Amino acid sequence: MAHGPSSSFKNPVVNWLDQRLPIFTMIQKEYGVFPTPRNFNYFWNFGAIAMIMLVTMIVSGIVLAMHYTPNTNLAFNSVERIMRDVNFGWLIRYIHMNGASFFFIAVYIHIFRGLYYGSYKKPRELLWIIGVVIFLLMMATAFMGYVLPWGQMSFWGATVITNLFSALPLVGQDIVTLLWGGFSVDNPTLNRFFALHYLLPFVIAAVVFLHVAALHITGSNNPLGVEPKGPQDTLPFHPYYTVKDSFGTVVYLAIFAAFVFYAPNFFGEPDNYIQANPMVTPPHIVPEWYFLPYYAILRSITFDISIPFTGLKLIEAKLGGVIAMFGSIAILFILPWLDTSPVRSARFRPIFKKGILAFLVAFFLLMYVGAQTADAAWHLGGLEIPLVYVGQFATLVYFGFFLSLPFVGLIEKPLPLPASIAKPVLGGGASAAGATAKPMEKA
């Protein structure tokens, strides 16, 4: 008869369980003694913070679902009942509402860290792609959740965004009808969105498990972008990074709690406290802040795309905006192959560092433009600059950053790489391994 693996835990109950199902041995291996680069900075906290926020969203969402009624006649009032009559319902809802924003803040910082330090490069391409899938699932979940309170912005946001699919040739209107469950946003739409909003967080949790599994196969990147060469370059994950992650998480949750208790509606939209009325369109329909850059990209395409000198229209403005919006996220999937530089970290890439700074400015500029009305403008002295032009410029910078990477990799002269991770950490400065950067797998 086969025998289970031997265990050496002090607790006899843990020891007995582990001999029959070695889950504690697995945890010790993957989260205890797992070798981790010794030079992590606090940007590496946000992966753990995002996981904590995911758990917070799932738990608070389950409790809210016990009291929510997915019916167009009752949904708005059921939310009001949660806020007024359910014990601590106001607290759970504010945790869930603000938790969505803080979840996206953590994930956006996590993505930016990956961009800046080249965490999408070989051998971590699949790790990056799984992360982009998580991001897409988050966006779908957040959009459907925003519809559930059935306020004015919920209803009209759902109407506007789902209508975008009608721009797709041949199948567009069929997709819209499928999403609506009829010929307008109504009860079937709300039921579908509620079911998917409840289901998708568990799908996200499963994909996060794959994300972490892929991370533990390739190992973590680090601020230098240099692979560990020996034990001197790594530290066990526990206690060094469990303590560091815990500290960062406590600080983040303290800021989160401050918003929940003292500014619970900071990220909210006043129109969403008015019950949905299909007969009254809000003067300014705006999505949640974490969708604003993509909404601005959508609105920046105000012109039809035609073949020059022929007048033959290839793509209408509406379809062009939809393509640009989805393309702004889809381009992340091919990023590992767009960047041809052998160096990971922006610390050693002067042109790339300037490019990513321009990208970050463009991203926040798009966020600002997306929050404004379509006819808004900047007034500089006697000069009027329509914000649609600002959005178009920022969109050009956004896509230009990614599409220029193959050429940047060819012309950029990276700075010398350190000989190892331990060299600048333990002393000796960032002494170079050579006059120029070597390929990543040899660095």
Automatic annotation (TrEMBL):
Q: Which residues bind heme b b566?
A: H110, H211
Binding residues annotated for heme b b562, in chain numbering: H96, H197
Q: For this UniProt entry, which residues form the secretion signal?
A: none
Annotated GO CC locations = respiratory chain complex III
Q: How is the cofactor bound?
A: Binds 2 heme groups non-covalently.
Name the keywords, alphabetized.
Electron transport, Heme, Iron, Membrane, Metal-binding, Respiratory chain, Transmembrane, Transmembrane helix, Transport
Q: Which residues bind a ubiquinone?
A: H216
Q: Which cofactors does the annotated protein need, by name?
A: heme; heme b
Q: Do you know which Pfam families this protein is assigned to?
A: Cytochrom_B_C, Cytochrome_B
Q: How does it sit in the membrane?
A: Multi-pass membrane protein
Query: Which Gene3D superfamilies does its entry note?
Result: Cytochrome Bc1 Complex, Chain C
Please verify whether the record's keywords include Nucleotide-binding.
no
List membrane-spanning regions: 42-68, 88-114, 126-148, 160-183, 195-217, 249-268, 319-339, 351-369, 389-411
Which biological processes are named by the entry's GO terms?
Answer: respiratory electron transport chain
Location of the protein in the cell = Membrane
Question: What positions does the domain Cytochrome b/b6 N-terminal region profile occupy?
Answer: 13-224
Which InterPro entries does this entry report, sorted A to Z?
Cyt_b/b6_C, Cyt_b/b6_C_sf, Cyt_b/b6_N, Cytb/b6-like_sf, Cytochrome_b, Cytochrome_b_C_euk/bac, Cytochrome_b_N_euk/bac, Di-haem_cyt_TM
| Transcription listed as a keyword | no
**A single GO molecular function term of this UniProt record:** quinol-cytochrome-c reductase activity
- Cytochrome b/b6 C-terminal region profile domain residues are 227-419
Q: Which family does it belong to?
A: Belongs to the cytochrome b family.
Described function:
Component of the ubiquinol-cytochrome c reductase complex (complex III or cytochrome b-c1 complex), which is a respiratory chain that generates an electrochemical potential coupled to ATP synthesis.
Subunit structure comment from the entry: The main subunits of complex b-c1 are: cytochrome b, cytochrome c1 and the Rieske protein.
Per its record, how is this protein called by name?
Answer: Cytochrome b
